[in-house]
């Protein structure tokens, strides 16, 4: 059952359960040099943008997980993107690290989509 509460799209498990699942979308652009993480809600409103180099993207993703929890986002749709075009079409090493760190920061990963 989806509801809109204070501009957030919320799914409640039942009328008697107080747990709310608030969805967000994490856009991850991972080249071999940089990793960008951009978190929005389902309506597309920008909530959080983090840019880190490939060596520290695990720490950046832990920061993103903490900020998502403070914003009230509990579940994420992941959209992974690589450089594309004439460059390589596979995501860089930061994509796997971001995904692992978000999963370990107790975020629910609903689905993972590769954007070409």
UniProtKB/TrEMBL annotation:
Pfam families: Ribosomal_S11. The keyword Coiled coil does not apply. It comes from the Eukaryota. It comes from Culex quinquefasciatus (Southern house mosquito). One of its GO terms (biological process) is translation. PANTHER family: 40S RIBOSOMAL PROTEIN S14/30S RIBOSOMAL PROTEIN S11 (PTHR11759). This is 40S ribosomal protein S14-3. InterPro entries: Ribosomal_uS11, Ribosomal_uS11_sf. Belongs to the universal ribosomal protein uS11 family. Keywords: Ribonucleoprotein, Ribosomal protein. One of its GO terms (molecular function) is structural constituent of ribosome.
């Amino acid at each position: 059952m989806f509801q809109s509460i204070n501009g957030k799209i919320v799914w409640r498990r039942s009328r008697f359960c107080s747990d709310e699942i608030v969805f967000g979308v994490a856009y991850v652009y991972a080249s071999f040099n940089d990793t960008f993480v951009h978190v929005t809600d389902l309506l597309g409103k920008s909530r959080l943008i983090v840019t880190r180099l490939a060596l520290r993207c695990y720490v950046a993703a832990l920061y993103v997980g903490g900020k998502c929890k403070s914003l009230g986002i509990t579940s994420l749709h992941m959209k992974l993107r690589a450089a594309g075009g004439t460059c390589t079409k596979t995501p860089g090493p930061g994509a796997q690290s971001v995904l692992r760190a978000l999963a370990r920061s107790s975020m629910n990963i609903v689905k993972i989509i590769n954007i070409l």
